[in-house]
Fold this sequence. Notes:
Among the domains are: 52 residues; 49 residues, Roll (SH3 type barrels), CATH 2.30.30. Strands 6-5-4-3-7 form a five-stranded antiparallel β-sheet. It has a two-stranded antiparallel ribbon with strand order 1-2. 35% of the residues lie in helices and 23% in strands. Helix 1 runs antiparallel to helix 2. A hairpin with a 2-residue loop joins strand 3 and strand 4. The chain is α+β, with helices and mostly antiparallel strands.
Amino acid sequence: MQVNAAGDEYRQPGDPSRVVTKSLDRDAFLRLLVEQLKNQDPMNPQDSSEFVAQLATFSSLEQLANLNNEMQQMRRRQEMIQASALIGKRVEISSADGTVSGTIEKVAVGADSVKVFVGGAQYGIDSITLIEADEPAGDNLEQPRHPANESSGQP
């Protein structure tokens, strides 16, 4: 039997289907708790408050893990929303080949990062060094009209 570092996966030689992971889910914890209760010494039983404390601790850890997963999903959605605002913007990107300039065509969110596509190539959003604002409308802007000036005949 091969022994790996603590916390690593364990695979019994010759049995590729059996994988024991480093996490303990709620069902496994409850089975372990029941086994402890069944196998305790009847003449010297363990204090039930220990079991309640273990269960409360495990429940708290499980809730924190669920909260962490939800926060990661929310972060990914927020990154996608923020990155989508860059579509159509002209950017400069620092890459291994030098500086690339172009317009962001689309964005994609992977497991751990946001990618932007410029000129058909994919770059990490962290490699953007410059974002140019949209072109202003310029000469097509109308001058504001003041009602007081219109009644007196002044432009």
